[in-house]
């Protein structure tokens, strides 16, 4: 295999060195395409170009590894590569989630392989496990912590009883959160990953924007104290559950028992719990972000291309039932508010009401539909956290 | 697929019910072969026989699922089935570890598939991950807790500062240990699993008896106190590490840091840590024993047969290097003794010596070879625990 690599960050550099040491992966890097060709590099200058056609039009290159940030530019590269009959490895979750159908069609049309293990939970081989091991209708749910930045922030918030803003600043200083953290803290990054996994887990293609998602930015010290008093951690949980042929899928800040395995997933770690027939659960855990975990996943994809591996998307191919996203499930939530209160009529049932000078909360059942339509959710002092 | 199943325990019964509910697994149970045909059963009597030829000689049955205890009887069944061109699913680690070469040859000769995910760490899809995801030479080590009974016993010993014998009794009463616990507590069960995984991880076939193994039966309250004072747990760790083309593989009671993820693997749970290139580690965790976890793995194997899956044993096929078990590594150990002391000359270096009226211990380096030959290891009052 000859590889053309877009991007020369730590992943690209690491790939170069690991491939040189491997006895069994028959892959060689032909060229890196980079933005800034004048910047000094650690490798020979002939290995670099800033002209993408030098990779995409080179018939000797049979695999493109796409490691750039910009999702739209990445999609153009990946599309061109597949249309030129090249196999592609990528870890770009935004690009994959937003273009999933087109990417599936491109693979089919061009009979090429498109692998993206690094796009979901980095080092955790979750896509491969869904494809190869949980490849039938026996899987009933998948849930987990899919975003390392928010998990780092939430771990610190709970440990230090510190409000969101202070911890975000610290996380940014330490490099655990982006300078524009929106995609992470609003749950959008986790939603992209959930969206990709929904297809591999249940054969469901869905527009990421339709999945009900709440972020962690409104969590305050009152919420944290509630968690501590009740022996909870707060985690941003992405979850999909199959009930008959209907899928319930959400990304929500959630109170989880301190003793649970998800509560023990701390800092930048990710975790996935799979439940299947026989009510058995399987737990996978590893670093969810960062150069090395991503590099490790990208490398395994490259290695798999060496023996012609491709995703077979067995769930969608085999299923007789029409799997659908369903939106009318009941959720048990905690809603905390100040002067303005939520509309009680929206609730199916309010189970508990608490008020004090420090804050007020209700605990109750509400339908997903009412939740999605609730105007009061826009009020800055109102925060909702799911009760698992 | 038509299945012939040997054994009608909880796994067999569960399989029957789950297969009836599945839309995608095209498998039907033709017959169960059981020992005692007169015992009343929950299913129709026509589904049972005590004559194994009714399954093995039936050309309509294309898959044999072997779920019996006796390893030698199981091997005869599996051999006959493969020689009759039938695919086989089994979870019998003793049988597989002891007959690995023959079983590999039988698969090849008869062009049949032999799957045994349930044999190693039950619900954890470790074999499939080694085959499919860690299928190249980038894996550097595999270690973990492979035996649920001993982990249950060790968890209780540490929690309750109770000696081995008391806890064993309790574990037996609760059904977490066999009435003859030898295979578990002497580390032999974990060794069988390690032996199977050595082939899938590194392409190494080895006689299980050659792997250096110590059990947990000699651990006393002095050892437990040492663990507690030093913030350790004691775990029975199976471990294989690749250094160049040499493999170091052992099963040893080991002191592990209380904060480590292996220490957090409690009771009947199993865990596996895989380390690979990019120094990334991946952690898999799930129930390691019991009917449901095993059933879950067996079911996934049956499902995989539906699309012609077979292990490709890529490690042994692809590797250019001759992988060998090596026995001359240095180990750091804790050795506790009473009146009779170990032979100091056996040690490469003794780092610490402690003596008191309650017990004595040394900490030091010793070569594997010296350890294997040490006569003093036979003395009942001398116990060795590895320092990780």
UniProtKB/TrEMBL annotation, chains A, B:
<protein>
    <recommendedName>
        <fullName>Homoserine dehydrogenase</fullName>
        <ecNumber>1.1.1.3</ecNumber>
    </recommendedName>
</protein>
<feature type="domain" description="Homoserine dehydrogenase catalytic">
    <location>
        <begin position="125"/>
        <end position="302"/>
    </location>
</feature>
<feature type="domain" description="Aspartate/homoserine dehydrogenase NAD-binding">
    <location>
        <begin position="7"/>
        <end position="117"/>
    </location>
</feature>
<dbReference type="GO" id="GO:0050661">
    <property type="term" value="F:NADP binding"/>
</dbReference>
<dbReference type="InterPro" id="IPR005106">
    <property type="entry name" value="Asp/hSer_DH_NAD-bd"/>
</dbReference>
<comment type="similarity">
    <text>Belongs to the homoserine dehydrogenase family.</text>
</comment>
<keyword id="KW-0028">Amino-acid biosynthesis</keyword>
<keyword id="KW-0791">Threonine biosynthesis</keyword>
<dbReference type="InterPro" id="IPR036291">
    <property type="entry name" value="NAD(P)-bd_dom_sf"/>
</dbReference>
<keyword id="KW-0521">NADP</keyword>
<dbReference type="GO" id="GO:0009088">
    <property type="term" value="P:threonine biosynthetic process"/>
</dbReference>
<comment type="pathway">
    <text>Amino-acid biosynthesis; L-methionine biosynthesis via de novo pathway; L-homoserine from L-aspartate: step 3/3.</text>
</comment>
<dbReference type="InterPro" id="IPR019811">
    <property type="entry name" value="HDH_CS"/>
</dbReference>
<dbReference type="Pfam" id="PF03447">
    <property type="entry name" value="NAD_binding_3"/>
</dbReference>
<keyword id="KW-0560">Oxidoreductase</keyword>
<dbReference type="InterPro" id="IPR001342">
    <property type="entry name" value="HDH_cat"/>
</dbReference>
<dbReference type="GO" id="GO:0009086">
    <property type="term" value="P:methionine biosynthetic process"/>
</dbReference>
<comment type="pathway">
    <text>Amino-acid biosynthesis; L-threonine biosynthesis; L-threonine from L-aspartate: step 3/5.</text>
</comment>
<dbReference type="Pfam" id="PF00742">
    <property type="entry name" value="Homoserine_dh"/>
</dbReference>
<dbReference type="GO" id="GO:0004412">
    <property type="term" value="F:homoserine dehydrogenase activity"/>
</dbReference>
<keyword id="KW-0486">Methionine biosynthesis</keyword>
